[in-house]
Amino acid sequence: MSELRQNFATKEWVVIATERARRPEEMARHRDRKPVASFVANCPFCPGNEKLTPPEVLRVPASMDVPWHVRVIPNKFAALSRDVQPTRTVHRSRRVVNGFGVHDVIIETPDHSQVLALMPDSYVAEILRIYKTRYDELSLDPRIAHITIFKNHGPDAGTSLEHPHSQMIATPVISLQVRERFQHALRHFDDYGECMFCQMLEEELEEQTRIVMVSEHFVALELYASPAPFCTHIYPRRHMASFGDVSTAEMNDLARMLRSTLAKLYHGLADPDFNFTIRSAPAENVGVKYFHWYLSVIPRLTRVAGFELGSGMFINTVLPEAAAEFLRKVDVEIAKDAAAGATP
Ligand SMILES: [Zn+2]
Ligand SMILES: [Zn+2]
Fold this sequence. Notes:
By secondary structure, the protein is α+β, with helices and mostly antiparallel strands. It has a single domain, classed as HIT family, subunit A (2-Layer Sandwich). The chain has seven helices and 15 strands. It has helices at 121-139, 176-192, 196-207, 248-268, 306-311, 320-329, 332-342; strands at 3-6, 13-16, 58-60, 70-74, 88-91, 94-97, 102-107, 146-153, 165-171, 211-214, 218-222, 232-236, 274-279, 294-299, 314-316. The strands form three sheets. The chain has a ten-stranded antiparallel sheet with strand order 3-4-7-9-8-13-14-12-11-10, sandwiched between helices. Helix 1 (121-139) crosses helix 4 (248-268) and helix 4 (248-268) crosses helix 7 (332-342). The protein is globular, with a radius of gyration of 20 Å. The site of one zinc ion has 6 residues, from loops.
């Protein structure tokens, strides 16, 4: 029987439509992915084309005498600009802030054909450390209220550039959605004296049914009220409000966890398009006891349609428990070796 489940953290309702449920493996769309070259002459992110992008703000390694592994550049077509001041104007019913913001692109590798799911964990850790370096820097800017780190992989996830990259947008305002989630978390803390995410993690670890993987410092799980099939969250096991609080040891573990999660999706669901996003406390809420940061991976296997737009409720056709069981069984180490063996 279908059921409506409520997301504990956001209070949003989701229809888990088991009547039209599909087996997890049926969600894999075996599309003909064209073979991708490791270098594309006209790609602005490929090595040798650095002049096609704005000057970089950061690179690894820092020395210009050796080839780069990761570059951070301002987005050439930035949604917001760092060259204006966030001046706020209120005129009758209209409220506006000048388009101030920072929009970075993180070029994850010089190799055009590489994907995070198949990279060595140490490369993924390097990218995550770059996220943190920029996140920490931008958090100190008093004009910035909130930072979103995200990746769009594939056309259904909204990317137009094939070369592996992620993005970071820092804004001078906090969205209503982020604000409301904070208020739920604060209210829960006031009512019960504990972080609602820590409570949820404890329960999930006890029940085990939605857990995908557990490592020393992180847990990957399917949400009880997952709005979409295989929407996977990675939570730090230690209470931490901000992504900026991650220690060096935890970062290496997070890289392993993220890479393994992406590899399970890659091998289990035939390289689906996906987004991931890091949900972290706004700059003004660093260190709070009531919010817990996490990384959310959302494979784009279904489309948002009229019901979702009209009701704000999603329909999920895969039981989160079945999705977790399916992902647990995808052996990423074996799969990774097989993939490596197939590459000359
Ligand atoms: Zn490229
Ligand atoms: Zn917590």
